[in-house]
């Protein structure tokens, strides 16, 4: 699927510009800029970045994120495929972390997920590695990763009947908002 999608990817866009364009803080209920931005300090995600491997990064990431968004549930879903909404797919839809707007969700339910977060610890999987004029890595791993995040987005959009969705790709010490 990555090969089919590579010509439709645009970007990159500076994070601040992206957030101002698509996630207006004035539209976030109970948003307190001072408390939110003061929580971001050097080393905030050091326990995540220092994890020995991808799977050991999930828990520290989830624990860190709770302080930024206590009203959301960050669930380690890497071992739980969505068998309700995605049972007819030829692949498993099991993002590493699903973010839900309630505190009762567990596992993977793509129809209820607000944000899907995928981790990759090896830079060989970086799909957004600039090569020449392209921002998409032409490697097999890069194409596989693009296919994976595309399929997760398609599953979420289809299950929720939405026109857009946000997801996050974490490449060890770098995060891409997609």
Structural class based on helices, strands and sheet pairing: alpha+beta
| Whole-number mean pLDDT | 84
Instruction: State the helical fraction.
Output: 25-40%
Q: In terms of quaternary structure, what is this?
A: single chain
Strand content: 5-15%
Describe it.
The chain is of the alpha+beta class and 178 residues long. The chain has six helices and five strands; from the N terminus they run αααααβββαββ. The protein has a five-stranded mixed β-sheet with strand order 1-2-3-4-5, sandwiched between helices. Strand 4 and strand 5 form a beta hairpin. The protein is globular and about 40 Å long. It starts with a helix and ends with a strand. 22% of the residues are buried. The mean pLDDT is 84.
Brief sketch in words of this structure:
With 178 residues, this protein is α+β, with helices and mostly antiparallel strands. The chain has helices at residues 2-5, 15-22, 33-38, 46-49, 54-68, 140-160; strands at residues 73-76, 97-100, 113-120, 166-171, 174-177.
């Amino acid at each position: 699927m990555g090969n089919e999608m590579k010509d439709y990817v645009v970007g990159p866009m500076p994070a601040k510009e992206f957030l101002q364009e698509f996630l207006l803080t004035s539209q976030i209920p109970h948003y307190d800029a001072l408390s939110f931005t003061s929580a971001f300090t050097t080393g905030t995600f050091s326990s995540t970045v220092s994890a020995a491997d991808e799977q050991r990064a999930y828990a520290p990431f989830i624990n860190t994120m709770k302080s930024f968004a206590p009203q959301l549930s960050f669930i380690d879903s890497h071992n739980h495929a969505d068998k309700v909404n995605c049972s007819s797919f030829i692949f498993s839809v099991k993002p590493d972390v699903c973010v839900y707007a309630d505190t009762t969700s567990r596992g993977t339910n793509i129809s209820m997920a607000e944000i899907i977060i995928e981790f990759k610890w090896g830079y060989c999987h970086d799909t957004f590695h600039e090569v020449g004029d392209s921002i998409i890595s032409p490697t097999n791993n890069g194409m596989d990763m693009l296919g994976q995040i595309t399929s997760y987005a398609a599953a979420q959009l289809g299950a929720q009947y939405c026109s857009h969705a946000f997801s996050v790709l974490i490449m060890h010490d770098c995060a891409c908002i997609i």
